[in-house]
Specification:
single chain, 260 residues, 8-stranded parallel sheet
């Protein structure tokens, strides 16, 4: 298992970088699909120049590959994202049918009005219909997603947040679980969420305390305009059957404060 050659898409992204490190730590060989080789390549990593959204360079990138982990996405264009996933699946079928892991979002089907989540759902469907040995790996919202959400609304004397629940997970735990399960060739579906189901208002209060801010948190109960916020408000992102990580929101906040 540890001598696998793994192709990672999105290997320079937030999750992808940690995933590459986790794969290398397991002794795997890693090839990253990228539009351009980075100016400071990561030690021990191969780079294949290509673009999954238009299908260029995929045959060369897949040469000798036994595992594909697809973490890349096109945030603002779900149709392009789904087309890209299809290009990658077709190229994998034309190669030697490597195990294919697709990274999605826990309960994305509950917020398909949000284009990014709709793209993930379509990607899941394409993977399931591909005939490849495959794993759909769904992760809950990352801690840094919640952090960015709160930064985005921290402009008023109070902090308005959706009156709902989340179960945020540490991206480090996602990377390690993803690497282990992909290398093991697990098939089917797997859901990973954080250790705690928390009110968004509770997460916000802890966030303010970590920043030394004394603002009041204002849970918003009116219908919100963005589909992802409405789904959050309605608690649609909670998956009771998900495997739970161990790193809490407070752990994330302490580590962030330590980094400065």
């Amino acid at each position: 298992m540890n001598d696998c050659l793994v192709l990672v898409t999105g290997g320079t992204g937030h999750l992808g970088r940690l995933l590459v490190q986790a794969l290398l730590g397991e002794g795997a060989r890693v090839r990253v699909l990228t539009r351009r080789v980075p100016s400071s390549p990561q030690a021990g990593v191969e780079y294949a120049v290509g673009n999954y959204t238009d299908g260029t360079g995929l045959a060369e990138a897949l040469a000798g590959i036994s595992r594909v982990i697809h973490t890349a996405h096109v945030l603002g264009d779900p149709l392009a994202d789904a087309r890209g996933t299809l290009h990658l699946l077709e190229a994998a079928r034309a190669a030697h049918r490597p195990h294919f892991t697709f990274v999605s979002i826990v309960r994305a089907r509950q917020a398909r009005a949000f284009g990014y989540y709709a793209g993930k759902v379509r990607g899941e469907e394409l993977v399931e219909a591909s005939g490849l040995p495959a794993l759909v790996f769904r992760a809950a919202q990352f801690h840094h997603f919640v952090d960015e959400l709160l930064v985005g609304v921290d402009r008023l004397p109070w902090l308005p947040v959706p009156d709902g629940e989340l179960q945020p997970v540490a991206v480090e735990e996602v990377a390690h679980e993803l690497a282990w399960r992909a290398l093991a060739g697990q098939r089917g579906t797997f859901d990973l969420a954080g250790p705690e189901v928390r009110r968004v208002s509770d997460l916000a209060r802890a966030w303010l305390a970590a920043r030394g801010e004394g603002k009041r948190v204002l849970p918003v109960r009116l219908p919100l305009p963005l589909p992802v916020l409405r789904a959050m408000q309605q608690g649609r992102f909670i998956e009771p059957g998900a495997t739970r990580g161990v790193i809490t929101w407070e752990d994330f906040l302490r580590e962030k404060a330590a980094r400065g």
